[in-house]
């Protein structure tokens, strides 16, 4: 059985710079982008907000889709984002188990919270462009 794949779009802000990528581990790849090690382009333009993603049963299908999307006009990409996410909000919280904001626990102090699963994801804080918080799923 093959690995799953994800095509994703990052944005710096609403209607800002877009970055399209593909990966077999979206949470880990987002962490790379948020720490500046994911892509020089995304880091240079501040495209760290996950605004759209799609999951594929096979990573080869995700790769083919990513290659096709990179050739699209910008207007098509914007339409794709706005169909699901008209406000261009960061949707990385959807990767957490449970899939709802109500299940998310934000660790602000860096201390270990009670009853938190080890599956955590660093997500951008919109207070400042460089701020990052860690979100985990509560059991």
What would your notes on this structure say?
The chain has about 140 residues and is α+β, with helices and mostly antiparallel strands. Helices cover about 25% and strands about 30% of the residues. The protein has helices at about 25-35, 40-45, 60-70, 75-85, and strands spanning about 5-10, 20-25, 50-55, 105, 115-125, 130-139. The strands form two sheets. The chain has a three-stranded antiparallel sheet with strand order 2-1-3, sandwiched between helices. Strands 4-6-5 form a three-stranded antiparallel sheet.
Strand order, main sheet: write it out: 2-1-3
Q: Beta-strand percentage?
A: 25-35%
Order of helices and strands: EEHHEHHEEE
Low-confidence stretches: 98-139
The computed structural class is alpha+beta
Number of strands: 6
Percentage of residues assigned to helices? 25-40%
Describe the sheet with the most strands. 3 strands, antiparallel
Overall pLDDT, averaged? Answer: 76
What's the end-to-end separation, in Å?
Answer: 30 Å
Question: Key terms for this structure?
Answer:
single chain, alpha+beta, three-stranded antiparallel β-sheet, disordered C terminus
């Amino acid at each position: 059985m093959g690995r799953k794949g994800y095509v994703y779009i990052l944005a710096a802000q609403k209607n800002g710079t877009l970055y399209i990528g593909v990966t077999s581990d979206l949470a880990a790849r987002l962490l790379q982008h948020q720490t500046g090690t994911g892509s020089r382009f995304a880091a240079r333009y501040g495209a760290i907000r996950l605004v759209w993603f799609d999951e594929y049963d096979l990573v080869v299908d995700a790769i083919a889709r990513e290659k096709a999307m990179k050739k699209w006009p910008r207007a098509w990409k914007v339409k794709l984002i706005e169909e699901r996410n008209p406000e261009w909000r960061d949707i990385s919280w959807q990767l957490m188990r449970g899939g709802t904001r109500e299940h998310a626990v934000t660790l602000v102090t860096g201390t270990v919270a009670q009853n938190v699963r080890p599956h955590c994801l660093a997500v951008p804080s919109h207070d400042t462009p460089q701020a990052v918080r860690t979100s985990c799923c509560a059991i």
